[in-house]
Amino acid sequence: MFRRPARLSLLGVVLWALRIAVVVGVIVGAWATLASGDLSGGTWVTLATAGLSQGAIYALIALGYTLVYGVLLMINFAHGEVFMLGAFAGMFVAEALLGPDAPLVDAPLLALLLVFAAAMLTSMLVALVLERIAYRPLRRAPRLVPLITAIGASLFLQYTAFGMFGSRTRRYPSMELLSGRVEFFGVSFQRIELITIISAVVLMAVLYYFVERTRTGRAMRAVSEDKDVAALMGINVDRTIVITFAIGGLLAGAAGVLFALLFNLVDFDMGVLPGIKAFTAAVLGGIGNIFGAMVGGILIGILEQVAPTLLLYGLDVPSPNQLRDVVAFGVLVLVLIFRPAGLFGRKENV
Questions:
Q1: Where are the domains of the chain?
Q2: Which residues pair with 182 in a beta bridge?
Q3: Which pTM was predicted?
């Protein structure tokens, strides 16, 4: 039996018009840039490799957001500050081990491993303190209450770091191990970019194996489905949630060191923008989905580096790279409008 198509509402018409406008804008901007021929293939490769390394960092941070959301159905907006404090801890250890007359100045690889260990442990401890003091007492509260608490915790940690370390930008000691360029599968990378990508991929693979193949990982997935039923099945819910925060903190600490080495800066508000962009990556991939957070982080990083030049250079927009943040937040808006569950998310989790 023939069925008449449903009549589009005014909102549906507006959304379709917006879809068409976005597609047309992308096609026109990309065509104008590519047709100009001003940018070589090497330029695009450089942008893509920079975006890949940056996206790997976003993915590591986004995993903290998505793990906590998957277990507690809350957004830990203090996670950017967990990332920031790990970067500071790593910097202090790096200065102690790699500064002038330091004990490990001739063993940079060992020193770098100790820097990562210090940063990851610091971020883990901060995440555990947040869970115990700020979030656990509110576990049964309405969902808006932990959200407001997370924002307050974020501001508290940020301005505590401001009071302790000041507002000036600091830098890690230079390391010969991380300087220069290397060829990898025929593509030229900065050495720190390649180390960032490889480190992030290894950490994400270990996390995926842990969640999918270990007993504790199965407990985390059970708690994310239903905490009460998981408790009835003998799972220690409190311990599982603590482990979730600990893993998120470890990944944030590693991301803090990689970010500081990649961009050569550490300051008290360095967690704000990367944190928001990592949250965008988690939403893009499907908040609560581990694989989605990984993919979302990589996509956001590449889009942030490539899209402004690709879409705006040919239209003679001045300094398109200054609009990288607009791309990240534009992606967030478009995802929330057209696919709020994300690329791999489930509708009931949104």
A1: 41-349
A2: 189
A3: 0.89
